[in-house]
Fold:
Amino acid sequence: MPEPIIIPGVEFDTLKRIIESDDFYFDAAVASSPQSLFRRILATSAAESLAKFVKQGPENVKVVLDYARMRASEVTSTERSPQDVALCACLIGLANDASPEVEEFLKSLQTSSIGGLKWASEIASLIARKVRVTSLSTRTELSAAAIISLNSSTARSDVAASTFVVNYQLNNMSA
Amino acid sequence: MAASRVVTTADRELGLDVYPEEAVSRRRGYRERFGKLFPSAQLRRDATASYNCYGLVLAGRRGWVRLDDLPCILTDDGYRLVGAREAAQPGDIILYKDGGVIEHMGIVLELRSLTASSSLTIPFVLSKWGPGPEYVHHVAHSPFGTDYEIWTDRPAGAI
Structure:
């Protein structure tokens, strides 16, 4: 089966709507460290789609990079915001692209003193330090299942709860 | 952002951050989002950015306790990890981790039986979810996963 042809800007519009959504922000906002924010975003289907989109070619890298630059220039608040989280998602999508433009953008974020870019700055630092999460731990997978839902209204707590009960019983049996 | 003076039992000073409140619509959004994802969690107090989960447990809801200060607080205030053969008790602290790093904290309110015929009990926890609301929830029904430790300031061997 031939690979689908992705027209720059079309699929990305869908991704933009997801990463700009309040729900995406709410799910990310509970992170208490940059590492946790990184993992939470990485576990989303939006981050996976962004990474795939970027891999399609330099035109797509430019689309995401231009959007990220625009987000960064729009941040005016001193606290974290949905714009900041959307920007973080783009950075994570771009994390494996080594083009000079991306590197330069990451550097500019790392040195930014704008309060509203605090998370983006820290995520950029993590990426620059070559932090790569190539496989999710079991715990993170569970956490992701419990936390991140972009399109489903189904309660995710059942998944974590079921697994918890099994683990809890196993732990008590072995104690 | 302002700072108040807070000290541990050993008189080590901690930073306590205070952030401005978020818009009403966003505060309502947290409640709706988490209510949908974790319907069994019982809303205890509405969303506010004025304190975090650590501030709830360790500073009486007076501000955001910094993640970096937690090891020092736990040590100075006499907390210890509850052993594998020791049961959690109301008042103990649940400390959630993500990738080995502290991610979240709550207080054990009560222990409930897993089923009517089971002797296994599950901790139910009061915790605040980021800048969102406070909830009373099953220890595994939250955005913070199931990797957690139980800490206590009870003397070892105390009931």
The helical segments of chain B are 24-37, 53-58, 70-76. The CA atoms of residues 7 and 13 of chain B lie 4 Å apart.
